[in-house]
């Protein structure tokens, strides 16, 4: 295999990405079967889902609304009229022997999406179309070592997913990415995932297959040369895997071209364990699917008034929101990237809204809470609420807790022992306000450490730390360190 650096130095990579998102409607795209994840096999079905003779489809209005939302968020034009088509092919998980999709008349077209890379570089991805279709069922191949059909004893088909509403977003060729092609592909899909979640059109959980990406890669000798032959790596469902798949395909294709061989237009499978792709089947062109207009569904004609009503309901999109919060919070670019990469933007924003400064909210969520989440292998937002974090910081600001005691309180809150105030009270962790008790601890520390006291009297202020430790120990860590320092200096006449 040619080294990646050599491959991108000799060849210009071109990407094309097709992203499928399962819409979070209550029912399927063309029938009333529930759209749910995890139900018993073949229980979320109707005659339409199963493709039984005489069963007729009806379009899900909410699915169309969600498709329009996605199109508008990608800067697309929304078609004044569009229609569904039959995409004909035989596979056991497609009970009708065709998929109801959109071909030459998509609901949304001609958009673009600005994608921000980790270092802040902006890349504009051109969007060709976003169209509606239905998902296929799911095949499970049993008995083989790989989970694929080759080597399996038999296969099982679950039609629960058949008919689940999808929107497929197809890019124009993405050029000019050079060696950063893998990073651009991953960042693009991540940006789409964030948009789907912000719009509320899908849970967008990649591990459940809500968002799946088909990654097309081709190479050409120079940016002004014609496009090369592409391969399509199917159903890549994690950001890391997308990067690996693009990287591997660039190296593999460059190796073949360098040896004088040609690239076969085909679908390929990505292998999580090795980070490699393997051949699937020769890639079909549109003509092979014998598209024709769906005769059982009338054309869709979204009224301009309805489209504008939907546009008016669109939320602030993730990129604009991040830029606004970066300015409002005063974080550095690096601090904001750390927050975003950790998936902590939402809880930090909610904590700030609950009355805490952005800096304090970031400290807790990226520090102690993130550490505990990593330890417990949970999402940070599962451990504690933003309101509880704000209450905890409020106790610090009020002088009732210091950071060390607050971390102890937080641990108990996460363990379900109550609110920060309840835990502080129950465990007696509030900072000592009794001046007499604190003075006694200070006097004892001075008496036990006369040499340190002399150093302080002589002007060596850094020696105060040697007295603070015993004071904290005597007060079980509940002394206010600043008050203790003031008392030490007063007692020593400094």
UniProtKB/TrEMBL annotation:
Keywords from the named record: ATP-binding, Ligase, Nucleotide-binding, Protein biosynthesis
* Homology family: Belongs to the GatB/GatE family. GatB subfamily.
The superkingdom listed in its UniProt entry is: Bacteria
User: What does it do?
Assistant: Allows the formation of correctly charged Asn-tRNA(Asn) or Gln-tRNA(Gln) through the transamidation of misacylated Asp-tRNA(Asn) or Glu-tRNA(Gln) in organisms which lack either or both of asparaginyl-tRNA or glutaminyl-tRNA synthetases. The reaction takes place in the presence of glutamine and ATP through an activated phospho-Asp-tRNA(Asn) or phospho-Glu-tRNA(Gln).
SUPFAM superfamilies per record: GatB/YqeY motif, Glutamine synthetase/guanido kinase
Q: Name one Pfam family in it.
A: GatB_N
Q: Give the encoding gene's name.
A: gatB
Query: Can you say what this protein is called?
Result: Aspartyl/glutamyl-tRNA(Asn/Gln) amidotransferase subunit B
Give the matching PANTHER family. GLUTAMYL-TRNA GLN AMIDOTRANSFERASE SUBUNIT B MITOCHONDRIAL AND PROKARYOTIC PET112-RELATED, GLUTAMYL-TRNA(GLN) AMIDOTRANSFERASE SUBUNIT B, MITOCHONDRIAL
Q: Looking at its record, which EC class is this enzyme? A: ligase
**Subunit structure and binding partners:** Heterotrimer of A, B and C subunits.
Instruction: Name the chemical reaction catalysed here.
Output: L-glutamyl-tRNA(Gln) + L-glutamine + ATP + H2O = L-glutaminyl-tRNA(Gln) + L-glutamate + ADP + phosphate + H(+); L-aspartyl-tRNA(Asn) + L-glutamine + ATP + H2O = L-asparaginyl-tRNA(Asn) + L-glutamate + ADP + phosphate + 2 H(+)
